[in-house]
Fold this sequence. Notes:
mainly alpha
Amino acid sequence: MNNNEQNYLNKIKENIVKKISDDINEGSIDKIIEKILKICEDEKKFINFHKYYFTILENKKYLLKEPDFFRVFKVKYSLQVINKEYLDGLEKHKSEIYSLIINNKLSELYFDNFYKAKIKTNNNLIHKSLNSFFTKLVHTYSPNEYCALDNPIKNYFGLKNESFYISFIVISSSYKYWASENKNLMKTIRNKFEQKDKNCYFQHDKISVMKLLDLIFWCKANKK
């Protein structure tokens, strides 16, 4: 990567970090948490998904041991435009996929398995980049390193015209940087979140920085 490219990425990161700081502060924390918990009250599917998410966090080899892992993952995460043949293909290569995630070979994982994937729909073959599938899988297995980016959050940070993979890497880096620079504020958010979660919707000891910031910006980007 040359200096111009690095400067460009640094500028994107700077803008994202500024946006995070604009949105999250001592005065906005209570409202943010209330929004997340309101979704929990209104949407049972949201809670069921997180139960599944925390189950995988407790057993990282769940992917290897669970029959039809990718089919269940697709349903729990409400992922669209994915057919049985594609899922069967992932299932056959689950050991390789797991190894790529664990060894942080994410560009290889993305471009070999999720970028312009071949999907059959109504007897037609289309090429579809399964971006959310990729980021949610990676986040679930590397919850401290990478965010579960989707298009609404990507667009919220002003990256509509950027590649999805680059956006995923830069936003993950921005989350980590912002959290490291705002440790006391993150601690306050965590404490208040746990205190307000009277129904114990979340396993708070398992919520990473990436997960917490994803929850916040998912709510904001989707105007929940």
